[in-house]
Structures are given as structure tokens and as C-alpha cells.
Write a structure and sequence with these properties.
Layout: E1 5-12, H1 19-25, E2 29-34, E3 37-43, E4 46-51, E5 55-59, H2 63-74, E6 84-92, E7 99-101, E8 104-107, H3 112-152, H4 159-178, H5 193-206, H6 208-261
Parallel strand pairs: 6-8
Antiparallel strand pairs: 1-5, 1-6, 2-3, 3-4, 4-5, 7-8
Helix pairs in contact: 3-4, 3-5, 3-6, 4-6
């Protein structure tokens, strides 16, 4: 009997994935592959999709299998319950037009391209969720520094710690910039009208574009705050150096006066 319902589960493991290593690790049939992704077929109705930016998407796998393969792909034991995830049903209904609702995709026929498009959008969604969580942590830390500045007049953070904070922010901004293309429309969407409409509906339902813009806006706020903190520290450091120079000059003058008098 032909399958008319596919359960799709997307996860983000929090780190980049070496696809070359995955090729030697996964014994399934390769259906599609490019520099940024691999799509495997284990059996009829069972597929595994892996994106290099850290997303792993399963179709037709049981939870125990999913947990096992995520640990293998990550190369370590992972906290499976706390991974960022997205679950969807792909329903095949020949007499209906394509439609995307909450956690459900309905299409009139099954194809690898349709499955690939759904998996791609879900992989983007969980990647965005991971980046948003990391950005929220940075925002919370800058909020604490701002509160300290408000109540004490001092940011209360050593220069070294602030530099590390700036470094973490820039790494995250660069990581998102590296993967910027993952949030653009897939080439698959240009191949036919069904795929184009499906991609548009999925992106709207998952709110990919707005979430990405919000993410960039949040990171810009963090960067602006860090630049302000750094300027305050540099001004404080410059003032301290000026006072040290003044004190040294006064000591030199005092020593000269004492030498002249005695």
C-alpha cells in the first residue's frame, strides 16, 4: 500500500556538521548531495537529510532511531530532549491542491523534490531557533551590564571579559553571515509551480524571513551596546593614564624642588 502520510522531524545539534565524515558514517542510499547537504534514503518512506550548518531532518524514523543517529552524526552523546526541533506531517492527497497549515503540509503527490523542500525549510527553521537562543543569551548579558551602568555609573566588567564578549558576538554574526544563503529561496522552488507555491507557503508559515531579520536586528543591538561599553572602558583607561602622567610629573617637580632646596 502506498504511503500517504510522512512524519518529518527536524533537529539542530548546535554545531556544524562535517559532511565528508557523515558520508563514511551513514550506510544508506544517497538520493541527493551538494556541498551543503546530504539526502539519504534508508527504505521506502524513510529518509535522512543533513545540512552542514547543523540541522538534521528525519522522515519516517522512530524516536529511538532518531536519537541514535543524532548522537552518531554529532560524534557524541547529545541532550536529545533539549535540542531545538520542529515536527511536521506531510500528507499526500491526490485530489487536493498544496496547502501548508500548522505542523501539516498537504500535497497532491509525493516526490523527492517536495520532500527535499519541506526538509530544507524545517532545517532552516531549527537553525534560526538555535541562533535566536544564542542571541537572546547575549542580549541578556548586555542587559545586565546596562543595569549595572544605570545603578552604579560603571559597567562593572573587566576589559578582558568585555573583549571576549565582543568576540562571541562577532563569531555569532559571522556564523550567521556564512549561512545567509540558507534563508534564501531554494533553487528547487524555481523548477515548477507546485514547488514554488509550496516553498512560499512554508516560508510564510515558519516565518523564516521575519525571524531572520529580527535576529540580525537583535545582534546589531548587542553590537551597539558593546561598542558603547568599550568606549566607556577606553575613556576610563585614558583618564587613568592621564592621571598617572600628571602624578608622575608632580613627583618629578617635587623631586626637583627638593633637590634644589637641599
Amino acid at each position: 500500500m502506498e504511503t500517504n502520510l510522512f512524519l518529518i522531524n527536524a533537529y539542530h545539534i548546535g554545531t556544524r556538521i562535517d559532511l565528508a565524515k557523515v558520508l563514511n558514517l551513514v550506510p544508506f542510499e544517497i538520493v541527493k548531495d551538494e556541498a551543503s547537504f546530504l539526502l539519504f534514503k534508508k527504505a521506502e518512506g524513510k529518509y535522512l537529510y543533513i545540512k552542514s550548518y547543523g540541522s538534521v531532518v528525519f522522515c519516517g524514523f522512530q524516536s529511538k532511531e532518531i536519537e541514535k543517529w543524532i548522537s552518531k552524526i554529532a560524534g557524541k552523546k547529545v541532550d536529545f530532549e533539549n535540542l531545538f526541533s520542529e515536527d511536521y506531517e506531510l500528507q499526500i492527497e491526490p485530489n487536493r491542491n498544496s496547502e501548508v497549515a500548522f505542523n501539516t503540509v498537504v500535497v497532491p503527490e509525493f516526490s523527492i523534490d517536495i520532500l527535499h523542500l519541506v526538509m530544507l525549510n524545517l532545517s532552516q527553521s531549527v537553525a534560526l531557533e538555535n541562533y535566536q537562543n544564542r542571541t537572546n543569551l547575549l542580549l541578556e548579558q548586555t542587559r545586565e551590564i546596562s543595569d549595572n551602568l544605570k545603578h552604579t555609573g560603571d559597567i562593572g566588567v573587566p576589559r578582558r571579559r568585555l573583549r571576549k564578549f565582543v568576540g562571541r558576538t562577532m563569531v555569532l554574526k559571522n556564523r550567521i553571515a556564512e549561512n545567509l544563503l540558507i534563508f534564501e529561496t531554494s533553487d528547487l522552488a524555481w523548477s515548477n509551480e507546485l514547488l514554488s507555491n509550496l516553498d512560499t507557503e512554508l516560508r510564510n508559515q515558519l516565518d523564516v524571513v521575519n525571524r531572520h531579520h529580527g535576529l540580525q536586528y537583535s545582534l546589531d543591538i548587542v553590537k551597539e551596546n558593546l561598542d558603547l561599553y568599550r568606549n566607556i572602558l577606553e575613556h576610563k583607561h585614558s583618564s587613568m593614564l592621564e592621571w598617572i602622567i600628571i602624578i608622575l610629573i608632580l613627583l618629578e617637580v617635587a623631586d626637583l624642588i627638593i633637590t634644589k632646596l637641599f
